[in-house]
Write a structure and sequence with these properties.
Elements: E1 2-4, E2 7-9, H1 15-24, H2 26-43, H3 49-65, H4 69-92, H5 94-98
Antiparallel strand pairs: 1-2
Helix pairs in contact: 1-2, 2-3, 3-4
InterPro entries: DUF3135 (IPR021482)
Pfam families: DUF3135 (PF11333)
Protein name: DUF3135 domain-containing protein
C-alpha cells in the first residue's frame, strides 16, 4: 500500500493484472477506478475536494458516453487535449479566460408563438 500524509492507500495492480481485469471482470476494474479515485479525493485538501469531485463527475459522464473501451479512450483523450489547451491559454493569455461575450436571446416557448 502507498502512503499519502501517513494514510495507507490502495496500490494500483500491475499492468497484466489490470489487463486481465479489463478482459474478465470489467465491473471490478470500474469499481477499482472509482474507489481509488475517491481515495485520492479524500486525501486532498478540503478546498480542492469539490473541484476534484466535479472533475470526477465530468470524467464519469464522458466515460458513460463511450460505446466501447476504444471509444472511451478517444473521448478521454479529446477531453484531455481540451484541458491542455485551456491550461496553455491560462499560462500564455490569462485574460482570455475571463473574457466572455455572449448574445442573450429571449426564449420563446413553441406553444406561445402566434399561429399563422
Amino acid at each position: 500500500m502507498a502512503r499519502i500524509e501517513g494514510v495507507a492507500m490502495q496500490t494500483l495492480p500491475s499492468f497484466d493484472e489490470l489487463k486481465a481485469m479489463a478482459e474478465n471482470a470489467p465491473h471490478e476494474l470500474e469499481a477499482l477506478r472509482q474507489s481509488m479515485s475517491e481515495e485520492i479525493i479524500e486525501q486532498s485538501s478540503q478546498a480542492m475536494q469539490p473541484r476534484l469531485r466535479a472533475q470526477m463527475s465530468h470524467i464519469n459522464q464522458v466515460i458513460a458516453r463511450g460505446k466501447n473501451p476504444n471509444h472511451i479512450n478517444i473521448l478521454l483523450m479529446a477531453e484531455l487535449q481540451q484541458q491542455l489547451k485551456r491550461f496553455a491559454l491560462a499560462l500564455n493569455d490569462p485574460q482570455a479566460l475571463t473574457e466572455h461575450t455572449a448574445e442573450v436571446k429571449a426564449f420563446i416557448h413553441p406553444t406561445h408563438q402566434s399561429e399563422s
